[in-house]
Design goal:
- Helices cover 48% and strands 14% of the residues.
- Helix 4 packs parallel to helix 5, helix 5 (114-122) packs across helix 14 and helix 8 packs across helix 15.
- The chain has 359 residues and is α/β, with parallel strands linked by helices.
- The chain contains 15 helices and 13 strands.
- The protein folds into two domains: 51-140 and 267-293, D-Maltodextrin-Binding Protein, domain 2, CATH 3.40.190; 143-264 and 323-356, 3-Layer(aba) Sandwich (D-Maltodextrin-Binding Protein, domain 2), CATH 3.40.190.10.
- The model is unreliable at 1-47 (pLDDT under 50).
- The protein starts with 8 loop residues before the first helix and ends with a helix.
Length: 359
């Protein structure tokens, strides 16, 4: 860093005077602003009352920024209320914990897994039967896990068995903190069992796959940054929408590969009853989530690489969102809650496989 030569005293004096004048003007402006606020006593309370917080999972930043931008003026025109929608994004498991411990007072949650919201419901933060409160069992869009590879696919990665070739390094988020990470494990397991393999074969495959993981970040976005920017690994197990975004931004460096089979991911949404003691705020939260199922919102969902629950709108985007063979969670567990307990609970499948690897 180049240092500025010291000024002589005369120069110092000349330079001090304008800053004093500026400070005086700033003081006058701040005083006037303070008086203006005092003359509008309801400004700050109303702003706070019209605020909702959406605690969401890692890759949804761009989607919800666009949805918020569209919803806020529409809602203002309809109701006369200007909403302030705040967004929080991180690994879905980590976001779940922050709502559970109260460090984030979510008005609504839009998390990676139905089981994340079921956990909030079991803890009394969200009413039972929450899935019936919104269309499509409160799942506004679906997704899946796909592969992102280097340009030209030099390692020849086309299917799940290719991920455990001796020279392949895998990037996927940590399943203990990330919905993407959990889905990668579930998709890998189901890629074996839904094609005739046994539970023992699935366990052996996933154990080997975990051994090939070069980086296991806390969330999907940081995993993607490691793969695309730091150039770690040969293949990334990514949300489809993240894969589309990364490849579009790095056309000369990356390619998207759809495996022959993968999991049907069902990110879900709900308003958080325990945090909505103000009826007006509850009204805003419910209107916001209902908006996600409108045609306008579903169109934006598709544009950002998620699969809209509206089949007609999904059909308009088959060029970017092609038909896929996706197995439901019921192909490998009773439901999402059962899958969480079986695979990611204490002494579950992940713990057992990790212990075998000494991790």
């Amino acid at each position: 860093m180049v240092e500025t030569p010291p000024l002589d005293e005369r120069a110092r004096a000349r330079r001090r005077v304008p800053w004093l004048n500026v400070l005086g003007v700033v003081a006058v402006v701040l005083a006037a602003a303070a008086l203006a606020v005092k003359n509008v006593p309801d400004a700050l309370p109303n702003a706070k009352a019209n605020r909702i917080l959406n605690v969401s999972y890692d890759p949804t930043r761009e989607l919800f920024a666009a949805l918020d931008k569209a919803f806020i003026p529409q809602y203002r025109a309809r109701s006369g209320v200007t909403l302030d929608i705040e967004e929080s994004h991180g690994g879905s498991g980590r976001q779940l914990k922050s709502v559970l411990d109260g460090s984030q007072k979510a008005s609504v949650v839009s998390l990676a897994l139905i089981s994340d919201i079921q956990t909030l419901s079991k803890r009394g933060l969200i009413a039972s039967g929450w899935q019936r409160r919104l269309p499509n069992n409160s799942v506004p869009y679906t997704s899946t896990v796909v592969f992102v590879v280097r340009k030209g696919n030099p390692k020849g990665i086309h299917d799940w068995p290719d991920l455990i070739k001796s020279d392949v390094a895998v990037v996927t988020p940590n399943p203990r903190s990330s919905g993407n990470g959990q889905l990668s494990v579930l998709a890998a397991w189901g890629s074996v069992t839904t094609r005739g393999g046994s539970q023992a074969q699935a366990a052996a495959y996933v154990r080997t796959l975990l051994h090939h993981v070069a980086v296991s970040d806390a969330g999907a976005r940081s995993a993607g940054d490691n793969f695309t920017l730091a150039k770690v690994g040969d293949v990334q197990l990514a949300w489809e929408n993240e894969a589309l975004r990364e490849v579009a931004a790095n056309k000369d460096e990356l390619e998207l590969v759809y495996p022959p089979v993968s999991i049907l991911a069902e990110p879900a949404v709900a308003w958080v009853d325990a945090n909505l003691t103000d009826p007006k705020t509850a009204t805003y939260a419910k209107a916001y989530l209902n908006y996600l199922f409108t045609d306008a919102a579903q169109e934006q969902v598709a544009q950002f690489g998620y699969r809209p629950c509206n089949p007609a709108i999904l059909a308009k985007h088959t060029d970017r969102l092609p038909p896929l063979t996706l197995f439901p969670i019921t192909a490998i567990a009773k439901d999402w809650s059962d899958a969480r307990e079986q695979f990611f609970g204490t002494n579950g499948i992940l713990d057992t496989l990790s212990a075998a690897l000494g991790t």
